[in-house]
Amino acid sequence: MSKKLIVGVDVGVDMAKKDFAAALRVDDIVVELDKCENDESGRQLLNEQVKALCEQQRVEQVHLVIEATGGYEAALVAYAYEQQWLVSMPNPKQVRDWAQGVGYRAKTDRVDPRILAHYGAERQPPTRPPLAVEVSHLDSLLKRRLDLEQALQKERTRLTESAHRPGIAPKVQESFQQVIDALEQALAEIEQTIDELCQRHEPFQQNLKRMLALPGVGTKVVLPLIVKLFQWQSLTHGQGNAKGLTSFVGFVGLDPQPYESGRSVRKQLAISKMGDKEMRRLLYMGALGGVRGQNPLKPFYDRLVGRGKAKKVALVAAARKILTWAWTIFSRQTEWNPAFHAIAP
User: Fold this and answer.
1) Alpha-carbon distance values, 90 to 253, 257, 261, 344 (Å)
2) Count of the separate structural domains present in the chain
3) Cβ contacts of residue 251 below 8 Å, gap of 6+?
4) Which of 71, 88, 123 is the endpoint of a domain?
5) pTM of the entire structure?
6) CA distances to 157, 198, 226, 302 from 194, in Å
7) Domain check: are 25 and 100 in the same one?
8) Which of 107, 179, 119, 124 is nearest to 148 (CA)?
């Protein structure tokens, strides 16, 4: 775990897609900032405000406390590391529970950064070390690959539809094909770069071999899954567990969310869906294929269906099981053993 923070300034940030609000806290002094744009100018403005307060209060250490927001916070976190700030990304539910316990009642864009700064000063949550450069690069390459795949699919659909509609100018179809050719070339270049990175980085090679042995983990799932496992390892300093991986708010979002009130109010069990939407989709599709094979995932799925669970619910549970198995293999750096993980029907 990380060392205890020295006296410094705690910076709480409530992040959104386009902007963020920040509050600075040192001892009992709280300074609120106006909203900053979520771009380079906004990050520089935050840094200037933080430096001014540090000089005024004669402190050096800066501790950024920010919640995961599905990637919107990534640029600010990277900037914080460049400034040699400490970074904590606490579980949002733990922050909310603590805030209610100490008397915070409101939840607004103005109050949230104050809560995070206060939480950082009071609870001193573990700091998160930066990801290895190779993991960050692979993550960005995979996101770009997904962007290109989606754009390519849309252009191909437009080209196909235009062929069945009268009155379409030939130049329009020519334009579709030009964009498709450019996207295909860009996608091929990204794929080549991904392959070269995986070949160079030995931990990727080791984990690729291990993860591809798991039921439901194929070529589409494996690299995004490996990135997610490295991110969880970094977030928890290697001390995380499989349950936390599935339930940490804003990470994957496969945790079940029961809704019950008294004896009469019961809503259908659902998952939180708070986290990486693409990772959930990939794991679900992996489960869909995995439960059709002869492997430990099939009896697990069959048992749930046999107990009356809806097939979709059982598939979500199977996706969660794949993620659990993956973390076990990744964290222990061991090989997949079907006999060890076999589940009796």
Assistant:
1) 16, 20, 28, 37
2) 3
3) 68, 228, 231, 232, 235, 245, 275, 276
4) 123
5) 0.76
6) 26, 6, 13, 37
7) yes
8) 179
Return the bridge partners of 12, or none: 23, 65
Domain-terminating residue out of 99, 123, 147: 123
Q: Which residues contact 118 (CB under 8 A, 6 or more apart)?
A: 10, 12, 25, 30, 99, 102
| Cα distances (Å, whole numbers) of residue 281 to 73, 82, 93 | 22, 33, 24
For residue 145, give its domain range.
133-200
- Span 229-283, pLDDT tens digits: 998 998 787 888 888 888 765 567 676 654 444 454 445 556 556 567 899 999 9
pLDDT digits (tens, 9 = 90+) for 306-325: 999 999 999 999 999 999 99
C-alpha distances in Å from residue 74, one per residue of 15, 24, 47, 68: 10, 20, 16, 9
Tell me the sheet residues that pair with 261: 265
